[in-house]
Amino acid sequence: MGNNEPSTKKVKVFSILAGKIKNCHKEFFDILRNRIENLEEARTVDESDIILVFCSIVSRAGTDIDAALKNSVYPTDKLAVLVVLHHTFDPEKTVPDSRRCVNRTDILTVDCLFCEDTGLLKCQKNSDAYDKTVYWLIQQGAKIGITISPCQNKSSSFTDVFSSFLPLRGRWE
User: Fold this and answer.
1) What count of other Cβ atoms lies within 10 Å of the Cβ of residue 160?
2) Is residue 1 domain-resident?
3) 38-86 pLDDT, tens digit each
4) What pTM value is reported for the model?
């Protein structure tokens, strides 16, 4: 290699879209890529290691989720995350836990809030979904031999809130 940095294989992600979701899939992937250093987009399902299935809720959650999963054909040896998108303008909206609608144990289900006009909302529900997805991918990847490397120079969402206060710290020390 020539340097002391360990080589990390790229982990490829393919997105499957079910419904009108604006660019939420790109936003979600970019957020994951900012937290996991060795992610890149795959052009096909076959070349991917991870599948992200995006499902917007249009009528009833159970019906829409079932349709998205039935229409999403991918090999079961790949890690899969179902991102359920709930349309709202309210970043504090409470939505039902979509995991109850999924009877599969081989897939992670997370709920996100979005608006058709602006994309993913900046809210705690979405931050929790990103954190849960990264943690699950690292855990599950290790089980099947995929190394998923979290970014070392990125702080967690919890510390991001407090990082703006750091310049003030020196005044009292």
Assistant:
1) 11
2) no
3) 999 999 999 999 999 999 988 888 888 888 888 777 777 889 999 999 9
4) 0.81
